[in-house]
Design goal:
319 residues; six-stranded mixed beta sheet; 11 helices; hydrolase; transmembrane helix; endonuclease; transmembrane; membrane
Length: 319
Amino acid sequence: MIRSRWAGLLIWPMVLPFAVWAALRTSGWTPVWQWVPLVAFTPYAAVASVIPLLLALGLRRWAAAALALVTGAVLATAVLPRHFADGDQPASDGRLRVLAANLAVGAGDTDALMDLVRSLDPDVLALQELTPAARERLEAAGLRRRMPHVVDRAVGGVHGSGIYSRHPITEKPLIALGRFRQARGVIRHPSGHEIEVVSVHPCAPRYDYKVWCWDQGLRALPRAGGQLRVLAGDFNATLDHGLVRDLLGSGYRDAADVTGHGLVPTWPQQGWEPLPGVTIDHVLADSRMAVNSFGVHPLPDSDHRPVFAELGLPRFTGH
């Protein structure tokens, strides 16, 4: 009897943390700043939430089992759809191929990135942590010949970005918060569409004083609607962050999620951080665009894996 009573008391400390996790993730509330980086690991919490459920069932603690079951269902509902491709796609006429890569303070391997450019043949390349030295290496390797139109916001350190395009591009005012420079430009596509592209890179919320910059950097991104837009790059956020879900709610779709690749990690590449991988690099496309394909690729000497999406453009009807 005493052993059974102790078992009943011990099961609750196992069940309650997962229940709190599910409640916070669903509500979008941030009780402490540490929750901002922690919530990115929700897919792992969803898998681990099965353990207290099985223990509660084995111990016949029905109240704890019921809470664990609800918790697991909430977490599974949040995570599992990313593993399955969406069936419906809007009709499209023309394509836009988008590649995004974080260069890790310009250190990303130039030859490997150029191999990706040649094999994937993107219309747009959105770069983060683009330094002047990395820009010079890439252009010496032929990037400017393949993609002659550029929005160059390269700068030393982690703060630079840029957009290379096969098609003419008109620069728009960059989004600058906490020294991070998110480049913007409008591409004139041969189909007749004008498409705004943002090279996304808000602050990384690794410390308390950077959470505000991260928050404001994501809030400053243009919402969907009106002009076609694509947001591509290192969001430092997953689909478990409320700010990303707000962007999706405005009328974007996450290319990885649409194609069933939403749980493929993009950071950190093996050997960079002693952490399980999370999906913080994205291509968000206007919901009027089809998502024909998506992939995550290696890039030596960077802590991020580049992401690539082929998007289908809606039929152009003029202005």
